[in-house]
Design brief:
This protein is of the alpha/beta class. The chain folds into two domains: about 1-165 and about 330-360, Medium-chain alcohol dehydrogenases, catalytic domain (Quinone Oxidoreductase, Chain A, domain 1); about 170-305, Rossmann fold (3-Layer(aba) Sandwich). The protein contains eleven helices and 18 strands. It has helices at about 45-50, 95-100, 165-175, 190-205, 220-225, 235-245, 260-270, 290-300, 310-325, 330-335, 345-350; strands spanning about 1-10, 20-25, 30-40, 60, 65-70, 85, 120, 125-130, 140-145, 145-150, 185-190, 210-215, 230, 250-255, 270-280, 300-305, 335-340, 355-360. The strands form three sheets. Strands 3, 5, 6, 9, 10, 17 and 18 form a seven-stranded mixed beta sheet that branches. Strands 13-12-11-14-15-16 form a six-stranded parallel beta sheet, with helices on both faces. Helix 3 (about 165-175) crosses helix 4 (about 190-205).
Length: about 375
């Protein structure tokens, strides 16, 4: 038996998706089927569609989702039909070296599911789940450890943002960088992840919190979500940031775009001895250069950040508590709500740098 759903199918690199019927395989051992309430449209989905990040095609993309467990496969315990959940696109195996050493977000098997077909088109062609989740569909089949129970009190639609944007942005500030009260921070790139990082910096007590984006239209959104100052990318960034930080530069710079130019900008905005955290997923061939002297002289720390250094089983309840208490505002991050057929327009808004998070709603 199978369940047939409407899904956005990507058949070729940089081709627009087609809404097609996909027959999902019944949940096998250790799997669950989730009926989606909503899915966020992340820049990583655009990178997958463009071939910047690898993905076997045809595929249903989408990795930021929330919904309700509809069926469970053999051997699944602790999950029942009707349970609200958030998708986890890099589920830890809890047995590899990285998991055993406190880095489950780097699990050797976290992306295994993306390499296996999970359904078929009407002509029998195998379809692959983007990042193992395939959230741009009415339902999906994922490993049981690829879902996290949704804590009470969270809107089941906006909860989709917890699965990537919020965990990644909040985790970059909280887990990876460890921002402390009174430290200064700059966030470059105000998409969904950047807006979450911005809120997390304010929540951590950073001051000032400087928001940077190429689009001046994001000024009001940035200020509404905790920025003390907004700078457009062409506003003489280094001088402005140093003027706001006693001539030094920020303690923490967060790059949330994924280009060599913005990584270099984040480096230049940080103080001597400061920390630069690269959150954006860039292209393999896009290289960034530093001189040997400046690395020595500036004594800065440059680090990558994968999935906010998060363990979703631990951190989803933590961020949910911040949402309930008003420290993280999911609703304001969502600037557009669409149906599945609105996905191409959402991708175009990201290409043009417009808006915050687009949310696809299925219910």
């Amino acid at each position: 038996m199978s369940t047939t759903v409407n899904a956005a199918v990507f058949a070729g690199v940089d081709e627009p998706p087609r809404i097609e019927r996909v027959a999902l395989r019944e949940p096998g051992p250790g799997q669950v089927r989730v009926r989606l309430s909503a899915a966020g449209v992340c820049h990583s989905d655009l990178s997958l569609a463009k071939g910047v990040l690898p993905q076997t095609l045809p595929a249903v993309l989408g990795h930021e989702g929330a919904g309700t467990v509809e069926a469970v496969g053999p051997g699944v315990t602790g999950l029942e039909a009707g349970a609200p959940v958030v998708l986890n696109w890099t589920p830890p195996c809890r047995a590899c070296w990285f998991c055993d050493n406190g880095e489950p977000y780097l699990c050797e098997h976290g992306l295994d599911a993306a390499q296996l077909p999970y359904g078929e088109l009407s002509d029998g062609t195998a379809v692959y789940p983007g990042l193992g989740t395939a959230a741009f569909a009415e339902a999906t089949v994922v490993p049981a450890n690829g879902v996290v129970p949704l804590p009470a009190g969270i809107d089941p639609g906006a909860a989709a943002l917890l699965g990537c944007a919020v965990l990644t942005g909040w985790g970059a500030v909280t887990n990876t960088a460890g921002v402390r009260p009174g430290q200064s921070a700059a966030v470059i790139g105000l998409g969904g992840v950047g807006l979450a990082a911005l809120q997390a910096a304010a929540l951590a007590g950073a001051d000032p919190v400087i928001a940077v984006d190429a689009s001046p239209a994001k000024r009001e959104l940035a200020l509404a979500l905790g920025a003390t100052r907004f700078l457009a990318a062409d506003e003489g960034l280094v001088g402005e940031v140093r003027a706001a930080t006693g001539g030094r530069g920020v303690d923490h710079a967060f790059e949330v775009v994924g280009t060599s130019a913005t990584i270099r900008a984040a480096w230049d905005l940080s103080r001597r001895g400061g920390t630069v955290t690269v959150v954006g997923a860039g292209a393999l061939e896009d290289t960034v250069a530093f001189s040997a002297l400046e690395i020595f002289h500036q004594a800065r720390t440059l680090r990558g950040c994968f999935y906010g250094s998060c363990d979703p089983d631990r951190d989803v309840p933590r961020v949910a508590a911040h949402v309930r208490e008003g420290g993280l505002d999911l609703a304001t991050m969502v600037t557009d709500e669409v149906g599945l057929d609105g996905l191409p327009a959402a991708f175009q808004r990201m290409r043009e740098g417009r808006g915050g998070r687009t949310l696809i709603r299925f219910d």
